[in-house]
Design goal:
heterodimer; A: about 160 residues; alpha+beta; Ubiquitin-like (UB roll); DNA polymerase, domain 1; 2 domains; 5-stranded mixed beta sheet; globular; B: about 800 residues; Aldehyde Oxidoreductase, domain 3; Aldehyde Oxidoreductase, domain 4; 7-stranded mixed beta sheet; about 30% helix; about 25% strand; binds FE2/S2 (inorganic) cluster
């Protein structure tokens, strides 16, 4: 199995790593870099538990090879909090009970952040559409939608 | 519920306290099994059977063992050397860990590869060569009982057929007589399909055996760590695993819903591998393995009959059910209840006569069946009674709400002794239904429906008024493999008045770290923020039977409350000593004791705690702590009325749930925000089997929906915005009047949706539609009626 030297930035820190061609980005993050906040929930790109931002876009890191992330900027859930201050989406998930077991939560919040970076005033339908690639088995989605709405409101007021 | 008794700082019952567990989860700092990485840890992956029934002629691991990094291939033969190739199920049946002769279902574990890396382990799995000889497959449970059906469990010496058990409840003769004397009888077959809990985290473990100390630590996705420890000790005692040397740690769990109650072969193989190799071994199944091989739920083929008078008064219920358990009875029921609590099937109605029977059978499918976010088999029972009630309404041309109101157990008749032997603790069914009808605007919707119908549009409104049975359970009836189903709390108050409370249960998202702290806060006035809650580590937590069947609040929550009351009793003695008065002269208000008639003379719980370690009365033991093992006197019976409004697209057959109103009554509420969250989640898991989910098999026993490509979980798009409300009827026997809420909605929602769909199609002569009500099913029905667009 051939190996490759790649360089990428994760949550602002630059990493140089040697990886096998087949290594998935999610495993690079979780196992090599020990950023275990990004989760794995399926093997068919359906659940979104592994969602991270790749150059600002939400991607399912189980469906990206580590080598494909060469030279890119990755943001994981661990990178949302800045200078000890939670991101408004994190605050809103906590405040609105947008999580239960917490397993889908990092991916869900990353998707929410990506949506709000594009549009600070999404409709309920747009929010539901945006998170339709993120499965949650615990919450029934109502409070997740509410959390994203409340984060949007917070961001609009900033 | 009345206003909270405690201040927002104390945050006792009734406060919507923000969850104490969330700060770690929103930062990605939860600690789930797959996050655990130990030095020298190896990875395990599993070879699985492509056949549903086959003889294993040979397993050749030589190629796999040549792959650099593959250290071992474990087969049934390996385990047989230690007599670990079979294990008991929770229902005292037996199940293979790894086969030595034949495989009994597709995706069954055949061998395990241990390697230095998860990718290499997967390579190893590819390289193991297994030679199978296919055998005749039994898929249909009805055919499984045919006299010429191949007998599947040839491992059981005297087994001559595929029947596992026959269970029955009620008075058959009296029920038959009531049927004979009734004016109307309706009959309906219904199938409650095989489904899977599909928690977003799959199952797995890290088994870590220390050769020097002989201690086995297993980090494991389990809802019942203590019971697992005892089962491991019983199963592997002969190879030297003794209970004090086994530590099960259930770290953060990414959803359980019943799927993480059983002990799966993968766990046992990983433990065996760690013991044999002497290194930590991680096994985490992937999603397809999870859906294809872990315990399923439901799979009940029901025939229901309901008898009534002309005026709609229900008189008797008769049910015959065939339960497909797959290759082994691996249900997670209390041992004396092979059909779980299916005998709750008389539901919310004042039925005088009932008779129910269930036969369990073996087939070539994965073993089960567990719950799917419900108390043992309660969803099946509720679907049955709520569906047949609507069939009766249709037969009598009565409004389904009117029929229900006519037959509800009257509020003044509680406690109610049901025809199948349960004593319902409390209820006010008309109040919940009236409230739901008011919120949804029932009359206006019926008008809208009539107008739409006239225009050829399809809209349905219907109800489910369910009664649950949770909180197992009283020790005289309830045990699992002999372990009584109490639960426990061990409570310690530190000198500075902060607390540590440990419980025998294990949260999988329910928020115990918050709600349990609120219970202690309510009882002692110590701020919930200062109560540290711990569970899931068998070396530190008191013994308990775990979290499932909505039992945590009814059992462990009650234990928390009683442990706190014991602490309060001792605190009273100390306060009397400090205040130099008789304990009888003291009055309690949350957080302090004061002298009757002299309220300025008081001691706070914090002052008392300090005194317990610095200035306790002579003759009294120092310290302030208590333990409670709570054995509930009865189960609890949460209930509710749900109303679904659906629109059906005549072009695609798609059912859209436009509105869903859920009025729940779970007794007194600890944290309203969390209760609502539990209901929302339960509703989505009720919508799922109603409209989307089913695990089915072809004639060869091949699973036809074994990944998220075909097994469709509801997304935010199919899920409506839930409308919830409450009525409060406290449980009279629970220490703080709570009933449990985690599963009510999963139980109550499916029939509401199914009934609404049938209601939308009733004028076309449709009386029943099987769940899941997929677009294809509806479209075919519409086509048959000449209505598909
Ligand atoms: S793990 Fe499910 S989409 Fe990536
Ligand atoms: S909170 Fe458990 S899966 Fe979303």
């Amino acid at each position: 199995m051939s190996r490759h030297d790649i360089q990428l930035s994760v949550n602002g820190a630059t990493h140089r790593v040697q990886v096998e061609s087949r290594l998935l980005l999610v495993h690079l993050l979780r196992e090599n870099l020990r950023l275990t906040g990004t989760h794995i929930g399926c093997d068919t790109t359906h659940c979104g538990a592994c969602t991270v931002l790749l150059d600002g876009d939400p991607v399912k890191s189980c469906t990206v090879l580590a080598v494909q992330a060469e030279g890119s900027q990755i943001t994981t859930v661990e990178g949302l909090e800045q200078d000890g201050k939670l991101h408004p989406v994190q605050e809103a998930f906590w405040e609105n009970h947008g999580l239960q077991c917490g397993y889908c939560t990092p991916g869900m919040m990353i998707t929410g952040c990506a949506l709000l970076a594009r549009d600070k005033n999404p409709s309920e339908a747009q929010i539901r559409e945006a998170i339709s690639g993120n499965l949650c088995r615990c919450t029934g989605y109502s409070n997740i939608v509410k959390a994203i709405q409340s984060a949007a409101e917070h961001l609009r007021q900033q | 519920m009345s206003e909270p008794r405690t201040s927002p700082e104390v945050c006792g019952m009734g406060h919507s306290m923000k969850r104490k567990e969330d700060p770690r989860f929103i930062r990605g700092k939860g600690n789930y099994v797959d996050d655990i990485q130990l030095p020298g840890m190896l990875h395990m992956d599993i070879v699985r059977s492509p056949f549903a029934h086959a003889k294993i002629k040979s397993i050749d691991a030589s190629k796999a063992l040549k792959i650099p990094g593959v250290l071992a291939v474990i087969t049934g033969e390996t385990l047989a050397k230690y007599n670990l190739h079979w294990m008991p199920t929770l229902m005292s049946d037996t199940q293979m860990v790894l086969p030595t002769e034949k495989v009994m279902y597709q995706a069954q574990e055949v061998a395990a590869v241990i390697a230095t890396d998860r990718y290499v382990a997967a390579d190893g799995v590819e390289a193991v060569e297994v030679d199978y000889e296919p055998l005749p497959v039994v898929v249909d449970p009805f055919k499984a009982l045919a006299p010429d059906a191949p007998v599947l469990r040839t491992d059981k010496k005297d087994k001559k057929d595929n029947r596992i058990f026959h269970w029955q409840a009620g008075d058959r003769a009296a029920t038959d007589k009531a049927f004979a004397e009734s004016d109307v009888v309706v009959k309906q077959d219904m199938y409650i399909p095989r489904i899977h809990v599909a928690s977003i985290e799959t199952c797995g473990c890290v088994a870590d055996f220390d050769r020097v100390s002989g201690k086995l630590t297993v980090y494991m996705t389990t809802q019942a760590p203590h019971a697992v420890r005892t089962v491991f000790a019983l199963v592997a005692g002969h190879v030297g695993l003794s209970e004090e040397k086994i530590r099960i740690i259930s770290p953060d769990i990414g959803g359980g819903f019943g799927g993480k109650v059983p002990v799966y072969p993968g766990y046992v193989i990983a433990v065996a591998a760690s013991v044999v190799i002497g290194k930590p071994v991680k096994w985490v199944e992937d999603r397809m393995e999870n859906l294809q091989a872990d315990s399923f739920a439901r799979d009940y083929h029901i025939h229901a009959e309901l008898a009534a008078k002309k005026d709609g008064t229900m008189t008797a219920l008769r049910i015959k059910t065939l339960a497909d358990h797959g290759y082994a009875d691996a249900a997670a029921n209390p041992s004396k209840f092979p059909a779980g609590l299916f005998s709750i099937c008389t539901g919310s109605y004042a039925l005088k006569h009932a008779f129910a029977e269930v036969d369990g059978v073996y087939t070539n499918k994965p073993p089960g069946g567990i719950a799917y976010r419900c108390s043992f088999r309660v969803t099946e029972a509720v679907h049955c009674i709520e569906r047949i009630t609507d069939v009766l309404a249709q037969e009598l041309k009565m409004d389904p709400a009117e029929l229900r109101l006519k037959n509800f157990i009257p509020p003044e008749k509680f406690p109610w002794k049901s025809a199948l032997g349960w004593e319902y603790d409390s209820g006010n069914y008309p109040a919940a239904l009236h409230k739901a009808m008011e919120i949804v605007g029932y009359e206006a919707l019926r008008k809208e429906q009539a107008e739409k119908r006239a225009r050829g549009e399809l809209m349905g409104i219907c109800i489910s008024s369910f009664t649950e049975i949770v909180g197992a359970g009283p020790s005289k009836q309830f045990d699992i493999l002999g372990l009584k189903m109490f639960d426990s709390c061990e409570l310690r108050i530190h000198p500075t008045g902060k607390a540590l409370a440990r419980f025998g249960t294990k949260s999988q998202g329910q928020g115990h770290e918050t709600t349990y702290a609120q219970i202690i806060a309510e009882e002692l006035g110590i701020p919930a923020a200062q109560v540290q809650v711990e569970e899931g580590d068998t070396d530190t937590a008191p013994y308990g039977l775990g979290t499932y069947a909505s039992r945590s609040t009814p059992t462990a929550g009650a234990a928390g409350s009683l442990a706190a009351r014991k602490v309060r009793e001792k605190a009273k003695q100390i306060a009397a000593h400090l205040l130099e008065c008789s304990p009888d002269d003291l009055v309690w208000e949350p957080g302090k004791f004061s002298v009757k008639g002299a309220p300025s003379r008081s001691k706070t719980i914090q002052e008392i705690a300090l005194a317990a370690y610095t200035n306790h009365p002579q003759g009294m033991e120092a310290g302030l702590e208590a333990v409670s093992y709570y054995d509930p006197p009865n189960l609890t019976f949460p209930f509710g009325s749900y109303i679904a409004v659906v629109d059906i697209d005549r072009g695609t057959g798609q059912v859209k749930v436009r509105r869903f109103v859920a009025v729940d009554d779970c007794g007194n509420i600890i944290n309203p925000m969390i209760v609502d969250g539990q209901i929302h989640g339960g509703l989505a898991m009720g919508l799922a089997p109603a409209l989307l989910e089913e695990i089915s098999y072809d004639d060869e026993g091949n699973i036809t929906g074994g990944s998220f490509m075909d097994y469709l979980l509801p997304t935010a798009v199919e899920t409506p915005s839930w409308e919830t409300a409450k009525t409060v009827t406290p449980s009279p026997h629970h220490p703080f009047g709570a009933k449990g809420v985690g599963e009510s909605a999963t139980v109550g929602a499916p029939p509401a949706i199914a009934n609404a769909v049938v209601d939308a199609l009733a004028h076309l002569g449709v009386r029943h539609v099987e769940i899941p009500i997929t677009p294809e099913k509806v479209w075919r029905l519409l086509k048959e009626k000449g209505l598909a667009e």
